[in-house]
Amino acid sequence: MTTIDAVLFDFDGTLAPNLDLPDMRRQVIARSLQAGIPEAVFADLYIVEIIEAGHAWLCAHDSARASHYKNSAEQLIVDIEIGAAASTDVFAGVTDMLAGLRSRGIKLGIVTRNCRAAIDTVFPEHHRYVDALHARDDVSHLKPDPRHLLANLSALAARPASSIMVGDGALDMRAGRELDMRCIGVLTGSNDAAALIQAGANEVQDNCLQLHKFLS
Ligand SMILES: [Mg+2]
User: Fold this and answer.
1) Distance between CA 115 and CA 45 in Å, rounded?
2) Do residues 141 and 148 touch, judged by C-beta distance below 8 A?
């Protein structure tokens, strides 16, 4: 039997219903275009990375507007996240699953691109169920950069190759695979099984609720 040091969970789409990320991205793009940033600067980027690239472009081309753009775009996503959090709860059964894993001595972590305040709102008792939370505010490198996961693994004193990454996102699978973690995709968020396998999932489950039963 293989020892499992830790299980790391993504949050939105994995432990709780997903945020409307496409809509959030559209709103950030609208704000960026309004600030005069050309679309080519951010065309293929994720939301936070759009703001970083837009800010860098403004610093080089229209520096007087740069910090206002950055502050207002960052506030826009926090407002959306906090607004959604107010009416969101973790999936039924999540706390039992987490307690079940923990009772086996497995360390648990959450790694999320959402802000800490939103996680505190949706899952205020997370301190009772997981050992370490690394939200957007807590790290300088976000998933799919594996350093986001490494920060969490390090806090848990867990070895990547003996740990599991669970998430609904392609970026969760990619980050986990870079660290040689076992990656479990779940279908409660934004991807289907084919997309998760393509991104590197070792296996795909309908949801995370049975993990405490089949992980040994
Ligand atoms: Mg997710």
Assistant:
1) 19
2) yes
Are the C-beta atoms of 119 and 153 separated by less than 8 Å? no
Domain coordinates of the chain in residue numbers? 6-17+89-214, 21-85
Per the listing, tokens 């709102």 go with 121
Instruction: Tell me the per-residue pLDDT of 3-53, one tens digit each, with 9 for 90 and over.
Output: 999 999 999 999 999 999 999 999 999 999 999 999 999 999 999 999 999
Topology of the domain comprising 6-17+89-214: Rossmann fold (3.40.50)
Give the contacts of 177 (CB within 8 A, at least 6 positions apart).
Answer: 183, 199, 200
Q: Is the pLDDT of residue 216 over 70?
A: no
Q: Which chain residues have CB less than 5 Å from ligand 1, an ion?
A: 10, 12-13, 168-169, 189
Retrieve residue 210's tokens: 């049975």
CA of 170 to the centre of ligand 1 (A): 9
Percent of the chain with pLDDT over 90: 96
